[in-house]
Every structure is written in structure tokens, then in C-alpha cells.
Amino acid sequence: MTIESQPVNAPGSSVTFINIFEVAAEHLDAFIAQWEQRAALMSTKPGFLDSRLHRARSSETRFQLVNVSHWESREAWEAATADTEFRERTRAAGEDPQTPITSSPGLYDVAVEFFA
Predict the structure, then answer these.
(1) Beta carbons within 8 Å of 21's beta carbon, 6+ residues apart
(2) Mean of the pLDDT values across residues 49-69?
């Protein structure tokens, strides 16, 4: 079953933020601890709906962590990610030699949806 959706950039339409992370197995726990701090900050921002960090079951999986969060609108997400403290924490995490990571963030809209 497909769903009717609003145009991609329609003001006020909810969005899904997905960020996939390549993190070496020995750095996962440290990265997750840092991520929790950034997520706690973001959860206080207007328009935040929810967030989940998914961890791969196999250490052989290329993307060890996948963050999926939902925001009331693109504007709410943009305002939250413009927060100075969040930007500083994100920059520091990306430059931390103790937990080298590669991330691939993006905003997404539902293309197809199925229900049980």
C-alpha cells in the first residue's frame, strides 16, 4: 500500500533524519556515550519527536550504527541543528582521534509504507 504524501519541502511537513555511521568495533561504546549526550540535547529542542540509535548485530556490518529521528518539520530540524552547543559537540565528536567515525546524514520523506 502506498501513502499520499505532502511535497518534499512542504512547510510544516514532518521529516525523518537518518544518519549512518562507520565506527570501528573498539570505538562503539565511546561513540554511543557521546551520541547519547548529543541526543539528550536535541530531545529538548522544539519540534523533536523521537530518536533511536540502532546498533548492528554483526561486527562485520559496514555501518555499525544507524540513527533514525523524527521532527515535526524541516524548519524545526534546521533550527535544532543550528544550535551552537550541538554544533560544537558534533564537531568535537568528528575530530576525536579516540573515536574515528564516518557519517552520512540526510533528511528523508516516506516513499512507500506497509503495515501488518
Answers:
(1) 31, 63, 64, 65, 66, 67, 101, 102, 103
(2) 96
